[in-house]
Write a structure and sequence with these properties.
By secondary structure, the chain is α/β, with parallel strands linked by helices. About 30% of the residues lie in helices and about 25% in strands. It has helices at about 15-30, 45-50, 65-75, 90-130, 150-155, 160, 175-180, 205-215, 260-265, 330-345, 390-405; strands at about 10-15, 30-35, 55, 80-85, 140-145, 170, 190-200, 220-225, 230-235, 240-245, 245-250, 250-255, 275-285, 295-300, 305-310, 310-320, 355-360, 370-375, 380, 415-420. The strands form three sheets. Strands 3, 4, 5, 6, 7, 13, 14, 15, 16 and 17 form a ten-stranded mixed sheet that branches. A seven-stranded mixed sheet has the order 8-2-1-12-19-18-20, covered by helices on one side. It has a three-stranded antiparallel sheet with strand order 9-10-11, with no helix packed on it. Strand 9 and strand 10 (about 240-245) form a beta hairpin. It binds flavin-adenine dinucleotide. Flavin-adenine dinucleotide binds near residues 256 and 281.
Length: about 425
């Protein structure tokens, strides 16, 4: 990506994790930054549901091998690991086929790239939390649990390539999990388990709200209840942003609007390979402190994480190829409850939890979409899928460095695009 020296004012569309962290790093790099957000505050969409994993070891490109077969068989299942309402649309089916191919072609290299990005994002996040003395609700250590042999084998097959990251990881006998997490007394059958002592989790919404305040203190302007309706590239590389009746013109735009990036770029002839997938979240107050986990748990089959957040337990994840709604589909609620009750049945009254759903944007290869588009000064920071926190913060810094012509602090191979949508 080449540095455009005339770029001074940058507008960011979207006030979620991706937008706010990009705004912070661009302001730090000396740009005049404004964030345009259609909601009344930051972190009100996908970021609100974030399970809070900062997990370079557990992170994986969110590819779904066997998705088509399992999705159709899940139609009859009351607590399915993947939700499909009434079959895939032709577009989703094409996306699912590409996702299956990505598992065969590029899973190992993408996993390595994502691990590097997430380790970087985790380090940046912890640094920001310490530097600004941010309030945190972090917990350290993650149990990665496998119900199915194929999932365990896929992860095991790339263990050697992951040695380069020097991140501690330990295979454990599922019967020994209780030694690491005394609250884990589950009889649920598991074929394998891994423990990652340096993976962590925290409260992503709290982080984003505090980062917004810091960004504001260094000059970022936040404009809420502003919906961007169109982008118009102008001569000289500037971009006009339509906000209903009004418009403003800036030197550059970063799109961090989740799945809405697609609609904003389509009229410019840029097609993004994204699929809108629903993901789900349940939050319940802890009932029995002794039976509530301190270690984060990630169930590979259901893609569900269970973590303690202060005095509450959050159960979140799961993927739904269903129409977007804020009220989760009853089967999604059933699946979240199943995972919670499988592992920590007495930690909280999960039946009375607050349930919530949001849309995440996913590429078929499960990798983030970050960097320049074919339209000069329009950039993207999006598609962080289910590993948004560490990946979005790492991507925000990589993007800010690329825009300002600085050397990236990590190897950015496979992490930045130069012509998204081409
Ligand atoms: C249930 C759930 C669990 C998850 N678990 C994890 C996890 O454990 N770990 C993890 O790292 N990630 C997780 N994720 C994913 C993570 O939350 C996302 O990848 C990340 O938060 C995405 O941030 P974002 O800023 O890209 O998107 P969003 O938070 O969705 O932000 C996009 C923003 O753009 C705004 N917007 C959209 N269109 C417009 C427009 N036209 N004009 C103005 N504003 C607009 C929206 O209002 C929104 O605020 C989870 C997601 C969900 C839903």
């Amino acid at each position: 990506m080449t540095h455009n020296k005339t770029l001074k004012q940058i507008a960011i569309v979207g006030g979620g994790l991706s937008g706010v962290s990009t705004a912070y790093f661009l302001a730090r790099a000396g740009y005049e930054v404004s964030v345009l957000e259609r909601r009344a505050n930051v972190a009100e969409e996908a970021t609100f549901g974030n399970s809070g994993l900062l997990a370079p070891c557990a992170v994986q490109p969110l590819v779904l091998p066997g998705i088509i077969k399992s999705a159709f068989s899940n139609l009859l299942h009351n607590e399915p690991p993947i939700l499909v309402k009434s079959g895939f649309s032709p577009r989703s089916l094409r996306w699912a086929r590409k996702s299956q191919r990505a598992v065969e072609d590029s899973f190992a290299s993408n996993k390595q790239n994502l691990t590097r990005l997430s380790a970087y994002g985790q380090m940046l996040t912890h640094h920001l939390q310490e530097h600004y003395a941010l309030e945190q609700e972090n917990s350290v250590g993650l149990l990665h649990l496998f119900r199915q042999q194929a999932d365990a084998a896929r992860c095991a097959s790339i263990q050697d390539e992951l040695q380069q990251f020097e991140l501690p990881r330990k295979q454990i006998d599922p019967k020994e999990i209780v030694r690491i997490e005394p609250a884990f007394q589950s009889p649920t059958p598991l074929v394998d388990a891994m423990y990652y002592p340096r993976d962590s989790a925290g409260n992503c919404v709290l982080f984003v709200k505090q980062l917004r305040a810091i960004a504001q203190s260094i000059g970022v302007q936040f404009h809420f209840s502003e919906t961007v309706t169109a982008l118009r590239p102008e001569l000289g590389g500037r971009v006009a942003i339509e906000l209903g009746e009004q418009s403003l013109t800036v030197d550059g735009v970063v799109l961090a609007a989740g799945i809405q990036n697609q609609a904003l770029l389509k009229p410019l002839g840029v097609t993004l390979p994204l699929c809108a997938v629903q993901s789900y979240n349940a939050m319940a107050p802890i009932k029995n402190l002794d039976e509530a986990p301190n270690t984060v748990l990630f169930d590979e089959t259901y893609k569900v994480a269970i973590a303690r957040v202060g005095n509450r337990i959050r159960v979140s994840g799961l993927l739904g190829f269903v129409p977007a709604t804020e009220q989760p589909h009853p089967k999604a609620i059933a699946s979240l409850l199943k995972v919670a009750n499988d592992f920590y049945p007495n930690a909280a009254n999960f039946n009375t939890a607050n349930f919530w759903a949001s849309t995440v944007a996913l590429q078929p290869n499960g990798m983030p979409l970050v960097g320049a588009t074919t339209h000069g000064n329009i950039y993207l920071n999006t598609a962080h899928g289910a590993h948004g926190w560490a990946a979005a913060v790492g991507s925000a810094k990589l993007l800010a460095d690329a825009i300002s012509g600085r050397e990236p602090e990590i190897d950015s191979t496979g992490l930045l695009t130069t012509q998204a949508g081409a």
